[in-house]
């Protein structure tokens, strides 16, 4: 069975908490991160469930062909196949961080990436037209920017990110990356172009640990009007404006009487920018995201 | 010579120091420990230690925590004693500062665990995860 793939861009419009449950670390409710690299990610399983709801407008047969039929019984018992049962044709991959918004003393915030994050994104973006060249690793701490970046302090020629003062180099490839990422969300091109910054991998690794959003929350005891015992906790989120990249893959429809090729499946899944509610803590405003694809077909296919 | 992981070394240090905190200082010490990690994340290491520095005249617990962090042999800060630690951090160059920040974050985890495991329930406050 031949598969086609198509990358997508996820843009957080509010803080995004895709958590891992309670931890015994500094943060009581941390976000999910890849084990070896510590890079934040949103599991494909989270995205698939939400995308399934976002595409409810599809004809029912197509909707089932894409996402698979809902189980008749939840839990382990529901795993048994029934007549007409089939797998969904769509495979939703994890979305991995590609640029983290970081507070900047000049220009309010920068969208910060690194050679490693861009290299990992290049793998996912393979097959798309115009993917920029890889950025060479450089000795840090150092920031590379495109022309006209608004986060560089002009009189100092430096970037002031959170606690870090970084020397700056201009590099055309940085602007190329910003423009390329913005092709998925053209209305954001200026915002991305003028704030996109590539720091060295070491500095990025520090920011991945220290520049996420941490909120302290409490539950009030209604009888005393003060904080209930044991009810103060800290929650981590990816800040609003975070950019993540992932891949959707698809094979032909497996649903009888709904013949769809892999490309049709992807077209329906990514037919327009999807507004998704991802991750946890939705009732306190977390997780409003946009999911968009790059225009034009991807040449990547696999067997 | 027995080799230990870095996590074991941090844990041993934290538990050993937390056990020494006098009874009457424990509620204050717990508050300082619980705030340490998130203050580093929100405000940076220099600001987090400056808060402790400010409190150390009035609060023995803040003084104690500065001593406890200083004696953990944080890379680049091995020579600083408790009261000197905030100033030594302010003088670190960028790479050293990033390294020290990450080390303090790891230490903060173990101090928090040690406090939760060592202090009795009535000495603990509103922080989630401390109930038995």
TrEMBL record, chain B:
One of its GO terms (cellular component) is cytoplasm. Its main location: cytoplasm. This is CRISPR type III-B/RAMP module-associated protein Cmr5. Keywords: Antiviral defense, Cytoplasm. GO terms for biological process: defense response to virus. It comes from Cystobacter ferrugineus. Belongs to the CRISPR system Cmr5 family. The lineage of its organism: Bacteria, Pseudomonadati, Myxococcota, Myxococcia, Myxococcales. It is found in: Cytoplasm. Pfam families: Cas_Cmr5. InterPro entries: AF1862-like_dom_sf, CRISPR-assoc_prot_Cmr5.
């Amino acid at each position: 069975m031949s598969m086609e793939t198509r990358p997508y861009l996820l843009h957080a419009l509010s803080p995004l908490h895709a958590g891992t449950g309670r931890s015994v670390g500094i943060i009581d409710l941390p976000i999910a991160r890849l084990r070896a690299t510590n890079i934040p990610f949103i599991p494909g399983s989270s995205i698939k469930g939400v995308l399934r709801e976002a595409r409810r407008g599809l004809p029912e047969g197509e909707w089932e062909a894409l996402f698979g039929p809902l189980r008749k019984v939840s839990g382990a018992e529901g795993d048994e196949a029934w007549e007409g049962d089939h797998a969904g044709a769509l495979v939703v991959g994890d979305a991995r961080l590609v640029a983290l918004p970081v507070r900047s003393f000049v220009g309010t915030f920068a969208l910060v990436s690194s050679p490693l994050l861009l290299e990992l994104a290049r793998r996912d973006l393979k097959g798309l037209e115009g993917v920029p060249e890889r950025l060479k690793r450089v000795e840090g701490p150092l920031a590379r920017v495109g022309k006209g970046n608004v986060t560089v302090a002009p009189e100092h020629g430096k970037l002031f990110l959170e606690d870090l003062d970084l020397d700056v180099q201009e590099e055309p490839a940085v602007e190329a990356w910003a423009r390329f990422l913005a092709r998925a969300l053209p209305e954001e091109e200026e915002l991305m172009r003028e704030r996109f910054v590539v720091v060295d991998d070491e500095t990025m690794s520090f920011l991945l640990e220290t520049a996420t959003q941490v909120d302290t929350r409490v539950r009030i005891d209604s009888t005393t009007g003060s904080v209930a015992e044991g009810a103060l906790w800290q929650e981590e989120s990816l800040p609003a404006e975070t950019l993540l990249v992932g891949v959707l893959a698809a094979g032909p429809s497996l649903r009888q009487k709904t013949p769809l090729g892999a490309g049709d499946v992807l077209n329906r899944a990514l037919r327009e920018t999807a507004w998704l509610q991802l991750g946890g803590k939705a009732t306190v405003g977390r997780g409003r995201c946009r999911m968009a694809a790059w225009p034009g077909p991807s040449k990547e296919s696999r067997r | 010579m027995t080799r230990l992981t870095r996590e074991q070394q941090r844990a041993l240090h934290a538990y050993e120091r937390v056990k020494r905190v006098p009874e009457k200082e424990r509620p204050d010490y717990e508050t300082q420990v619980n705030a340490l990690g998130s203050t580093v994340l929100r405000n940076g290491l220099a600001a987090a230690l400056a808060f402790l520095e400010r409190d150390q005249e009035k609060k023995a617990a803040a003084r104690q925590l500065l001593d406890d962090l200083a004696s953990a042999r944080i890379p680049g800060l091995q020579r600083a004693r408790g009261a000197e630690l905030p100033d030594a951090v302010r003088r670190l160059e960028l790479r050293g500062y990033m390294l020290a920040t990450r080390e303090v974050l790891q230490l903060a985890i173990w101090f928090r665990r040690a406090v939760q495991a060592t202090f009795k329930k009535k000495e603990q406050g509103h922080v989630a995860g401390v109930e038995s």
